[in-house]
């Protein structure tokens, strides 16, 4: 039994999302949102990176009760 050589056919689809990174100054200038705390925003962006923008999974693991639509809205308003 010989193992296959070369790239796996579907390896080209195994990509990671580049999630926005921001400094304290950038957060204050561009990302401040009255209904979101800095801590929640940081958690959201970390989960987006970790779970490749799979918002159903992110919503399941998000520490506060936020809808999938709220999470998507917050993420995409900052990018």
Automatic annotation (TrEMBL):
It is found in: Nucleus. InterPro entries: DAMP1_SANT-like (IPR032563), Homeodomain-like_sf (IPR009057), Swc4/Dmap1 (IPR027109). GO terms for biological process: chromatin remodeling; DNA repair; negative regulation of transcription by RNA polymerase II. Gene3D superfamilies: Homeodomain-like. Residues 8-77 form the DAMP1 SANT/Myb-like domain. One of its GO terms (molecular function) is transcription corepressor activity. GO terms for cellular component: NuA4 histone acetyltransferase complex; Swr1 complex. Keywords: Chromatin regulator, Nucleus, Transcription, Transcription regulation. Pfam families: SANT_DAMP1_like (PF16282). It comes from the Eukaryota. This is dAMP1 SANT/Myb-like domain-containing protein. It comes from Aegilops tauschii subsp. strangulata.
